[in-house]
Structure formats: structure tokens, C-alpha cells
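so my prof wants the structure for this chain in the C-alpha cells format not the other one, which i didnt know existed until like an hour ago. anyway here's the sequence
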Amino acid sequence: MPIIDTIFSGEISQYSRDIRELYPFSIYDHRPSLPSGLSDYYQTEQFRIGYACFKYAVARILQPKTIVEIGVGVGVSAIAFLNGCSAIYMGIDNDCESGRNFPVKPSEFVKGLVAERGTIRITDSAKLDRLPPCDLVHVDGGHDYESAYSDVMLAWRSNARWILVDDARDSVVAAATFDALHKKSPGSVDWAYFEDTWTGNLLISRKKERP
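here's what i got, hopefully its the right format
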């Protein structure tokens, strides 16, 4: 029986397949950039492949020129993105995890990592009306319904070609994401779910390729 690459042509089908083929075998390693004092899971191979290599593969395949990230953490995704493409990066974070889940202040630490290739804006994303024009928005902020809904709505208003939502295995984040999509674009929306990643990821396309 012949192997069919995709049944329906289009970028979301092609790119999601390419991402799936790349990240499980990537040699990219985020660990040299980690601060000390983090939870042990950051050092595991499952986290390296299922989180860092996945983010690297997304950037490598999509090749965005500009990236905005909501919720910068300790910069694992930021550095993975920038290793996968030549984009300019902007991170948004309110530093609420400083001294709690992270041993560093996210805004300062990640700014040092991205250096001249990026900027960090210290603010609560819920207070923003717009994001700067960009090709990819990475949503990885608050995981409560209100925060996730607000961040996806904000990402959609940016007119970014791609929106990547982290923590999509969380039913609260998933519900907030699809409620936002229903609000902004009722009907057909092209998206791909990557179940074999650290916390589940949704890649949403702003381009409607099928009716």
C-alpha cells in the first residue's frame, strides 16, 4: 500500500509533519543555558526533547522573522527559538515567578540570554491592547482560564501568521484557547496538536487554507 504524506495539502499539514519528524531526533540542548537551582526535570532527556527540541523545531521549520513570547520563564523557549532561526525576539513577563518557581528574575535572566537579538518588556500581558507586528506568538503565560483566554485573544489581534500555545494538555488552557478562537474566528480554523511534547502544544494558523 502506498504511503500518503498528507490527504489535504496546505502549510499546516506540511509544517506540522516536518516538525514531528525533526524534534524527536534533534541534538539541540538547552541545558548549558540553565541557571542553577531549578527543578531536576529541566535536566532530563524528556524535557530536552519534549520541550526544548520541540520549540527549536517549530522555529526551524516555520522560520519566523519576528517572535513575541508571553511568559518567558528561564528562557528555554526563547533560546530554542533563536537557535532555530534568525528572528528578532521580544519577551513579555511580569516577573511574578521570581523567587517562587524560578531562582532568577525572568526579565533580567532572559534578557542576558537573548542579548542583542531581543528585548524584554516587564508588564502584565492582560494590560496590553496590542502586540507589535510579528510572525509567531508563543503563549506560555498564566494557566488560569482568564489569563490564557486574554493571551490568545491578544495573540490573535497581533495578526501573527502563527500562534503556538503551550500547556495545551491542561483542559483549562485548551478551553480558553478554543473559546478565544470561537470568539475571533467562528467556523474553520487550521490548527495542529502536538501530543507527544512536554505539556502539549497547539500550533494555530491565521491563514485559512480550507473552507
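also thought this was worth mentioning. The mean pLDDT is 94.
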